């Protein structure tokens, strides 16, 4: 289902996504951990394999990875999930996560770097410039920057909120050409696909945004970090002329499919038109 969007517009946006030189990939906690909240080596390696398929095409990739609190939860017995504990869990999980990314990218002789950010860092021009410069230098070196919110220090006032917003801000801030949000559902649906067998995937979002938003608001009770924030993040990015795709992390070769303009997930068509270049 693609609502009112014309096939040609959608195809053009898919091609724009395929041609992106600088790609921001966001992976959620479910895409990295198992049911017991342990970091899932297979899922993580699969994500890294997918990213490698983009790097092999000479694209630059910036990864926004969640999973710190999730991975920490699996390592500390008896945590109760208070805010203070979640902050502490994030520090346990984050170092474990980076250890695994270092190993997994090492299979391809690739180095990684960790960047932990808060809202302050995104709002303060000087800090933001420093962040941009660091990312540029890492990319010049062929290192894969891996971003997450600095949960250890992020209190309510300085929280970015969730990584869907961080990845959207990062995409616009570092002049990304594409945002890919990987999640445990295959995109935006007309209902909750986990509960409703008739829910259909919405192939593209653009001029039909309000209709899609209505359908989604009616069909989901998710709040923090659910499909709503993924849609908001993708919408923000597409309003800046950058395509965004929400897709299923477990789909084989998902990033390769996007890089070859295959019709996977839900694509957010750049609102101010697809550029000519
Ligand atoms: N920064 C959180 C973590 O790494 C992620 C929040 C989210 O799921 O978006 O656990």
From TrEMBL:
Keyword Glycoprotein: no
Domain of life the protein comes from: Archaea
Pfam families per UniProt: AA_kinase
NCBIfam families given in the database record: proB
Family: Belongs to the glutamate 5-kinase family.
GO CC terms, sorted: cytosol
Function: Catalyzes the transfer of a phosphate group to glutamate to form L-glutamate 5-phosphate.
Localization, UniProt: Cytoplasm
Residues binding ATP, per UniProt: 26, 183-184
Biological-process GO terms, alphabetical: L-proline biosynthetic process
Pathway terms, separated by semicolons: Amino-acid biosynthesis; L-proline biosynthesis; L-glutamate 5-semialdehyde from L-glutamate: step 1/2
GO molecular function annotation: ATP binding; glutamate 5-kinase activity
Gene (name only): proB
Record's catalysed reaction(s): L-glutamate + ATP = L-glutamyl 5-phosphate + ADP
Protein name (database record): Glutamate 5-kinase
CDD domains the UniProt entry points to: AAK_G5K_ProB
InterPro entries associated with the record: AceGlu_kinase-like_sf (IPR036393), Asp/Glu/Uridylate_kinase (IPR001048), G5K_ProB (IPR041739), Glu/AcGlu_kinase (IPR001057), Glu_5kinase (IPR011529), Glu_5kinase/COase_Synthase (IPR005715)
Residues annotated for substrate binding in this entry: 66, 151, 163
Keywords: Amino-acid biosynthesis, ATP-binding, Cytoplasm, Kinase, Nucleotide-binding, Proline biosynthesis, Transferase
Principal location class: cytoplasm
EC identifiers of the protein: 2.7.2.11
Ranges of residues in domain Aspartate/glutamate/uridylate kinase: 22-247
């Amino acid at each position: 289902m693609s609502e009112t969007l014309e096939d040609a517009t959608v195809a053009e946006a898919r091609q724009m996504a395929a041609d992106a030189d600088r790609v921001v990939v966001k992976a959620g906690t479910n895409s990295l951990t198992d049911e017991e909240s342990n970091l899932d080596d297979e899922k993580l390696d699969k994500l890294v394999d997918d990213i490698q398929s983009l790097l092999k095409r000479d694209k630059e990739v910036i990864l926004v990875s969640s999973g710190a609190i999730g991975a920490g939860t699996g390592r500390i017995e008896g945590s109760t999930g208070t805010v203070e504990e979640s902050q502490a869990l994030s520090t346990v999980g984050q170092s474990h996560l980076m250890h695994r990314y270092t190993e997994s990218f090492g299979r391809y002789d690739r180095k990684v770097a960790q960047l932990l950010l808060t809202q302050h860092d995104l709002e303060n021009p000087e800090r933001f410039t420093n962040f941009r410069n660091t990312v540029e230098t890492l990319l010049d070196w062929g290192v894969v920057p891996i971003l997450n919110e600095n949960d250890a220090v992020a209190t309510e006032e300085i929280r970015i909120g969730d990584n869907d917003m961080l990845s959207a801000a990062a995409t616009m801030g570092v002049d990304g050409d594409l945002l890919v949000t990987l999640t445990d559902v295959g995109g935006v649906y007309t209902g909750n696909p986990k509960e409703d067998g008739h829910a259909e995937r919405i192939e593209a979002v653009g001029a039909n945004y309000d209709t899609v938003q209505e359908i989604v608001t009616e069909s989901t009770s998710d709040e923090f970090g659910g499909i709503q924030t993924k849609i908001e993040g993708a919408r923000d990015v597409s309003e800046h002329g950058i395509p965004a795709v929400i897709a299923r992390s477990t789909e084989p070769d998902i990033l390769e499919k996007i890089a070859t303009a295959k019709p996977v997930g839900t694509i957010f068509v750049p609102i101010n038109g697809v550029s000519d270049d």
